[in-house]
Write a structure and sequence with these properties.
three-stranded antiparallel beta sheet, Arc Repressor Mutant, subunit A, 16 helices, 21% strand, 492 residues, elongated, alpha+beta
């Protein structure tokens, strides 16, 4: 195993090389129970309480595959445009570690659930398609917790609550060439999986974990360099930093006449460096063989069609539709499809109001601002999408001014009341009666002879002052467009 070599390669040297990056992403499926037993998957339970003979690996305990886990795995694979294999098979992946009580993981090896998918990304305005080699199911290991710093008081503990939690592993093709592309791939992957509700992808709870395989080669070379795996990257930022460091380190090793060794490394965020962990295993090191306690998994056409029919519209397609159907800008469409909940909320507002562009502004601006201030998610919004749609519709119909709507909305947010109820109770409905407005305009003209003379003398911008006086007289309830037109008629 090699020691960590500091990345002393110059930018000029790094520019002569091309990185080759592939990601292995482990995603915890959003099931209530584990993949082969009925133990709960809830996070935060006391150590070693969500366990049973199956996930403890006790002799004689037999696994029973969860149908819910399979359906979520199929959804995840379909969302990545993978081909679902009609038959897949579980295998034993043998290795020894304190948090793996069986001495093996139940995984899929040569017959995975799904294959040959892709994820589309955009980096610096350029679109790229990153291939997905395979999506396979497996159970998770437990968790080792290390405590103490000195040898005399250093302890390691094992919590097996996570043992047996259902996972899918998503293995990409080695198609990424920069850390920015890897960051974009993981971002899009997370969003898609959250959209189809396969997983919460909460990285703080370990629901999404990433290993990166990275090598470098001289630009133009066809043969890949020696691959190094960087394990357990638990944030998007650390993924990017670890890749940048590892690319520079490998270039430095090669430029100094050394040879990159195939190994597994860990990223230390405090030092900003990767460090050698162990020599890299090959598939034969795990002694894979078919799991004797589980029959092959067969996905029939009817079952697959049933799962496919329950799939929601995916974020990329929804973004395109929002731009075409609602006339949104690309940026607005991206914001409004950030999560499935946000996209569904917005679309309900757009349809209820009949004014999708104004609806987008209210959702992204006023609503998001108040939710952020209150620390709430959109699903917890006191203002239902139908009620916000009603508010936008009142503005569009000229029954409520935009200025007064800004006063009404916080009251809707704090009380949960409909816009129409607040408007009627507080007498805020916009004044669009021409007869009533003409009297107010006549009073403003009579009370401001100097400004009237300036307007008639060619200084037309003074009309903004006169309109402001009329709005003040009506407590902001007058229809601004109508007031402006009436002033122009009277002063013509």
């Amino acid at each position: 195993m090699s020691s960590s070599a500091p990345p002393v390669a110059t930018l000029e040297a790094i520019a002569r090389y091309e990185p080759v990056i592939g990601l292995e992403v482990h995603v915890q499926l959003a099931t209530a129970t584990k993949i082969f037993c009925g133990c709960p998957t809830s996070f935060g339970a006391p150590p070693n309480t969500n366990v049973c003979p199956v996930c403890l690996g006790l002799p004689g305990a037999l696994p029973v595959l969860s149908r819910e886990a399979v359906e979520l795995a199929i959804k995840g694979a379909l969302a990545l445009d993978c081909r679902i294999n009609p038959q897949s098979r579980f295998a034993r992946k043998n290795y020894f570690y304190p948090d793996l009580p069986k001495g093996y993981q139940i995984s899929q090896y040569d017959e995975p659930l799904g294959e040959h998918g892709y994820v589309d990304i955009v980096v610096d305005g350029a679109a790229r398609r990153i291939g997905v080699t395979r999506v396979h199911m497996e159970d998770d290991a437990g968790k080792s917790i290390h405590d103490g710093f000195r040898d005399s008081d250093r302890y390691s503990y094992v919590d097996l609550n996570r043992s047996g939690t259902p996972l899918i592993e998503i293995v990409s093709d080695p198609d990424m060439r920069t850390s920015d592309e890897a960051y974009a791939y993981l971002t899009e992957l997370k969003q898609v999986l959250q959209f189809v509700e396969v997983s919460t992808c909460d990285m703080e709870k370990g629901h999404l974990r990433c290993d990166a395989n990275v090598s470098v080669r001289i630009k133009g070379a066809e043969k890949f360099g020696t691959k190094v795996e960087v394990k357990n990257l638990n944030s998007f930022r650390f993924l990017k930093l670890a890749l940048d460091y590892e690319i520079a380190r490998q270039v430095a090793v090669i430029e100094s006449g050394g040879k990159v060794e195939q190994e597994t490394r860990l990223y230390n965020p405090d030092l900003g460096e990767t460090a050698g962990m162990r020599s890299k295993e090959h598939a034969h090191d795990y002694r894979y063989f078919p799991e004797p306690d589980l029959v092959p998994l067969r996905i029939g056409e009817n079952w697959l069609a049933e799962v496919r029919a329950g799939m929601p519209e995916l974020p990329a397609r929804k973004r395109t539709r929002f731009i075409g159907e609602y006339g949104l800008r690309e940026y607005d469409a991206e914001v409004l499809t950030a999560t499935r909940a946000v996209s569904e909320y917005y679309e309900t507002v757009a349809k209820a109001s009949g004014d999708p562009k104004t609806a987008a502004n209210w959702v992204m601006g006023d609503l998001m601002g108040l939710l952020k201030a209150e620390g709430k998610e959109i699903a917890e919004s006191p203002v239902s999408p139908e009620n916000l749609g009603e508010l936008v519709k009142l503005i569009a119909k000229g029954e409520l001014s935009g200025k007064l709507a800004k006063e009404v909305f916080p009251k809707m947010f704090s009380t949960g009341e409909r816009a129409g109820v607040i408007v009627e109770r507080e007498g805020l409905r916009q004044i669009s009666d021409t007869g009533a407005l003409e009297k107010i305009i006549a009073d403003v003209i009579a009370g401001n002879p100097k400004q009237v003379e300036q307007y008639r003398g060619g200084k037309t911008t003074v009309i903004n002052f006169l309109v402001g006086q009329a709005m003040r007289a009506t407590r902001g309830q007058a229809n601004v467009a109508l007031v402006t037109d009436l002033f122009k008629q009277k002063l013509g």
